[in-house]
Design a protein that fits this description.
globular, five-stranded parallel sheet, 9 helices, SGNH/GDSL hydrolase family protein, Ester_Hydrolysis_Enzymes, 200 residues, Rossmann fold, alpha/beta, SGNH_hydro_sf, SGNH_hydro
């Protein structure tokens, strides 16, 4: 049986309530219900509010557990308030260092790592100042993906374009979190990237 682990913040968490048998309502659950993956084991270890540092702390504390056929990570948006609203400088140096440490751990447990780009929508307007940080994080993650032979999945421009075409409310509930349709789009992006790994 194939085993897939998902790590990250509230986008991954999606109210799975720390229950390993509960995948939540988000993109992880949608993927697990696809016919292509019905015989696979999906594990959701996303946690609401997690920064990349918190992901690292969790992995150090609880471990990763055996071999995984693929591990997916989506983190970054919660690091932006640390940069903006505290006296702590996070981006780029600490963000890069913590992310690299996470990848060092993941590489010990899988040969297939998928790194979802953090994303943020154009509305509400209060998030407009955050986009430059999303761009910095995305570049860091993209560069680390190359260094670690991981697979970077572009999300930000695609989801924002969908919001412009279909309406923001169709894709996001608040500028960060996703509607059911938004989660379907994110699941599609993951599936397309994952499938391409084995058909190139």
């Amino acid at each position: 049986m194939k085993q897939y682990l998902f790590l990250g913040d509230s986008i991954t968490d999606a109210d799975h309530l720390f229950d390993p048998a509960n995948l939540g309502y988000g993109y992880v659950s949608l993927l697990a219900r696809r016919p292509e993956y019905v015989d696979a084991r999906f594990v959701n270890r996303g946690h609401e509010g997690f920064t990349i540092e918190r992901v690292l702390q969790m992995l150090r504390r609880d471990g990763i557990g055996g071999h995984w056929d693929a591990i997916t990570l989506l983190a970054g948006v919660n690091d932006i308030p640390v940069e903006l609203f505290t006296s702590h400088s996070r981006i780029p140096l600490e963000f890069s260092a913590f992310y690299r440490e996470v990848l060092d751990l993941l590489c010990q447990h899988t040969s297939t790592i998928l790194l979802l780009e953090p994303f943020l929508f154009d509305e509400p307007a209060e998030y407009s100042a955050w986009h430059s940080y999303i761009e910095k994080e995305s570049q860091i993650i993209h560069d680390l993906a190359l260094s670690y032979s991981a697979h970077f999945i572009t999300t930000d421009s695609i989801l924002r374009q969908a919001a412009r075409q279909e309406g923001v409310d169709a894709i996001t509930t608040d500028g960060i979190h996703l509607t059911p349709h938004g989660n379907t789009l994110l699941a599609d992006l993951w599936h397309q990237a994952f499938t391409a790994l084995f058909h190139d």
